[in-house]
Structures are given as structure tokens and as C-alpha cells.
């Protein structure tokens, strides 16, 4: 027994020395937020353990409620899926009216949940706002705004390359590598240091590779040109004009620090749905053009790139995921563990799903549960 204890003590000391020598002390925070609280990774309510800046709301604009609201029941096939994947919210909106909504596990229409990477679609939208306001151009070089990216190869990266995840930067998106860049971005306390020292290792504008650093750099560009923090800009240009009910929280790397733009807007299902309505109405909100319809079309169409396997990109636009399913063109915001705002223009339908787990990843780049939630909504209202 003593030998075992000595061995375990040796391992404990060795691991701590490795962490300290590597400079990755943020791993202690990751452990305290996950394993010490009974989790093995991030989770939809972990935002309470991080500092945050507020996206202020303005005058509340209520959603229209359909005459047949909640009169159609969920299909039987989706019920065990919701149970297994621990869905906490499911909304169906047709013609800008809520037709169905249900909540589980103590959640309600006012409960906040982590968007995870759905926030990437919000950053894209803010880029669209800045383009409409003529303060940036999609073909401008990143070097025009961030001097750290004026190196021989880095100077060729454009805003469009960042939007389409084709910057060619040396990033590793692995979510389950505790020493990786994405984990450090999530749990660490210095986003600028992390993303301002990246190097181009592949020609920009050629290959789609999903890297969170691209979104974070877009946020730093927006702050540079607007003179406002991302939460302030999002409040002014999106949250207030779209009539959100509640202020949202955008987690930061430290107190009064930089927003984690690649993830971590914390809001409720009904307010998340508003970005779907904005895009379904071609960037117009009740007569006010927030983003140009041209940008909406480009953002929700597959960028002219190759994927990592050398095939034509069919899945990604400007920080929106894209597919064609059952002869329906579909685009959507997607976050870890199956956070979705799904838009189906031909059906005038928006689907919002929030939850604690997602289905298996498929070869086409989407997830099994994504299609299952669409099937459920179509069976209910098609």
C-alpha cells in the first residue's frame, strides 16, 4: 500500500511539474470547473464559473404566438432522443410565430444556456453590420487592423478568409486535448496572447478548416474599427434592435477582459431564435435593414473552397453551417453539445434546440441529432 501511495504521489507531483513548466496553469481552472464539479468537459451552464460582459437589451419585442400553439404534439420517435441527449429546450417557429415550445430539466423560456459556437454566427452577423456601415470591406487584409498579422505570409489573410475558416493558420481545434489551443482559449485568461502569435502554414483562401481562432480575430478587428467592445457592439447593433427580452452574458477570458467570441454567449431559446428570424427575413427586422440581403445570401451559401479531404466545400459559409436535406436548403448556427438555430426558408421555419449532449458526428460534417430534430419539426408541421 505504501508503494502504491508513493507511486501515486510521484505521478501527482510529476503532472503538476509538467503543468507548471509548460506554463499551462489554466488547466487547474479547467479541472476545478469540470472534474471537481462532476463533469468531464464543458457544459451548458458552466458560464456561471467565468467572468462575463453584458449584452444589454432594450425595449422588449414579444414573439407572435401561433393560433395552434402547442396543439401539435412531439412525434414519438424524438422523445427517447430528447431524453438520451438531455434536451432542455425545443422551439419551432413558423412565419415568425412560435408554434411549439417545450422545456425540460428545470429550464424555461427565460433560462440562460451557453451557445458555445453558435456565437460564431453572431460575430459573422456583426461583420455584416460593419460592412453595411462601410467601416470595413470583406476583402480587406487583416494586417490593416492587426499589425501582428503583417508578416510575409500573414499579410495575405483577408476578412473573408477568417469568415470562411480558410486562413491557413497554425491552430488545432481538438476539443478533448487538455493542452490544446482551443482548451486554452476556453479556460485560459489571455486570448490576445494566444491568437496574436499564430503563423500561416497553408495558403489562405484555399481550404476550409474549422478553427476558432478565426472568429476571435474577427472580434478583435471589429473592436479595432468600432472602438467598442464586442458586447457593446452586439447590444447596439443586434440585441436592442431585435427586441431581446433579456440581457445576455458573453463570457470573457478574465474580469473586464476580452469576450470569448468563438463561443459563450449565454441566453435563452427565444432570444437565440431572433438571429434566425433576422436571416429568414434577409437581414431586415421589422422594416430596418440590419445587414444587407447580399451578405445574408453569401453567409448562408457554401464558400468556394476545398474541404480538408480535397473535396468541394458544401457545408460552410460565413460562420454558418449549410446543408441540403430532403430537397430543402438549410443553414444553421451550431454549438457544442447540440445547440442549434436551424433555418429552413422553404418552410418559413426556424428550429431552436438547446441541450446537454449531441448525437454522433456523421461523415457529411453534420450530426445525427441535427437531422432528427428537423425530422421531428417537419413531421409536426409539414
What does the model show?
This protein is globular. The protein has 382 residues and is α+β, with helices and mostly antiparallel strands. β8 and β9 (288-289) form a beta hairpin. The termini are far apart. α4 (119-132) runs parallel beside α8. It has helices at 2-22, 26-33, 78-85, 119-132, 159-163, 181-187, 191-195, 212-226, 230-239, 269-280, 293-299, 368-381; strands at residues 52-55, 64-65, 87-94, 97-103, 113-114, 248-251, 265-267, 284-285, 288-289, 321-325, 328-335, 339-344, 349-355. Helices cover 33% and strands 16% of the residues. The longest helix is centred in the first third of the chain and has 21 residues, at 2-22. It contains twelve helices and 13 strands. The protein has a seven-stranded mixed beta sheet, with helices on both faces. Strands 1-6-7-5 form a four-stranded antiparallel beta sheet. Strands 8-9 form a two-stranded antiparallel sheet.
Q: What's this, in brief?
A:
This protein is an alpha+beta fold and 382 residues long. It has helices at 2-22, 26-33, 78-85, 119-132, 159-163, 181-187, 191-195, 212-226, 230-239, 269-280, 293-299, 368-381; strands at residues 52-55, 64-65, 87-94, 97-103, 113-114, 248-251, 265-267, 284-285, 288-289, 321-325, 328-335, 339-344, 349-355.
Give the topology, please.
Blueprint: H1 2-22, H2 26-33, E1 52-55, E2 64-65, H3 78-85, E3 87-94, E4 97-103, E5 113-114, H4 119-132, H5 159-163, H6 181-187, H7 191-195, H8 212-226, H9 230-239, E6 248-251, E7 265-267, H10 269-280, E8 284-285, E9 288-289, H11 293-299, E10 321-325, E11 328-335, E12 339-344, E13 349-355, H12 368-381
Parallel strand pairs: 2-4
Antiparallel strand pairs: 1-6, 3-4, 3-13, 5-7, 6-7, 8-9, 10-11, 11-12, 12-13
Amino acid at each position: 500500500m505504501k508503494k502504491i501511495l508513493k507511486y501515486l504521489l510521484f505521478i501527482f507531483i510529476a503532472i503538476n511539474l509538467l503543468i507548471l513548466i509548460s506554463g499551462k496553469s489554466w488547466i487547474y481552472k479547467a479541472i476545478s470547473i469540470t472534474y471537481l464539479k462532476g463533469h468531464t468537459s464543458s457544459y451548458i451552464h458552466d458560464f456561471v464559473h467565468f467572468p462575463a460582459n453584458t449584452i444589454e437589451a432594450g425595449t422588449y419585442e414579444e414573439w407572435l404566438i401561433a393560433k395552434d400553439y402547442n396543439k401539435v404534439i412531439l412525434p414519438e420517435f424524438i422523445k427517447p432522443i430528447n431524453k438520451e441527449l438531455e434536451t432542455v429546450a425545443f422551439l419551432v417557429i413558423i412565419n415568425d410565430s412560435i408554434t411549439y415550445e417545450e422545456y425540460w430539466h428545470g429550464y424555461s423560456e427565460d433560462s440562460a444556456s451557453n451557445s458555445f459556437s453558435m456565437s460564431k454566427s453572431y460575430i459573422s452577423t456583426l461583420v455584416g453590420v460593419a460592412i453595411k456601415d462601410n467601416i470595413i470591406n470583406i476583402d480587406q487584409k487583416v494586417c490593416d487592423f492587426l499589425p501582428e498579422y503583417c508578416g510575409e505570409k500573414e499579410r495575405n489573410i483577408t476578412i473573408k478568409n477568417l469568415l470562411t475558416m480558410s486562413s491557413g493558420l497554425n491552430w488545432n481545434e481538438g476539443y478533448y486535448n487538455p493542452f490544446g489551443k482551443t482548451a486554452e482559449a476556453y479556460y485560459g485568461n489571455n486570448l490576445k496572447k494566444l491568437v496574436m502569435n499564430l503563423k500561416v502554414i497553408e495558403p489562405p483562401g484555399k481550404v476550409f478548416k474549422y478553427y476558432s481562432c478565426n472568429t476571435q480575430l474577427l472580434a478583435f478587428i471589429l473592436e479595432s474599427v468600432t472602438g467598442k467592445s464586442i458586447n457593446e457592439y452586439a447590444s447596439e447593433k443586434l440585441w436592442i434592435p431585435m427586441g431581446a427580452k433579456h440581457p445576455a452574458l458573453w463570457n470573457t477570458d478574465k474580469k473586464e477582459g476580452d469576450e470569448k467570441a468563438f463561443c459563450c454567449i449565454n441566453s435563452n431559446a427565444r432570444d437565440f431564435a431572433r438571429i434566425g428570424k433576422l436571416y429568414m427575413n434577409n437581414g431586415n427586422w421589422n422594416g430596418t435593414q440590419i445587414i444587407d440581403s447580399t451578405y445574408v445570401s453569401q453567409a448562408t451559401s457554401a464558400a468556394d473552397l476545398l474541404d480538408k479531404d480535397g473535396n468541394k466545400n458544401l457545408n460552410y459559409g460565413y460562420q454558418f453551417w449549410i446543408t441540403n436535406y430532403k430537397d430543402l436548403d438549410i443553414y444553421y448556427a451550431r454549438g457544442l453539445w447540440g445547440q442549434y438555430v436551424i433555418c429552413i426558408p422553404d418552410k418559413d421555419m426556424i428550429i431552436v434546440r438547446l441541450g446537454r449532449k449531441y448525437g454522433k458526428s456523421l461523415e457529411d460534417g453534420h450530426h445525427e441529432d441535427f437531422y432528427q430534430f428537423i425530422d421531428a419539426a417537419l413531421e409536426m408541421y409539414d
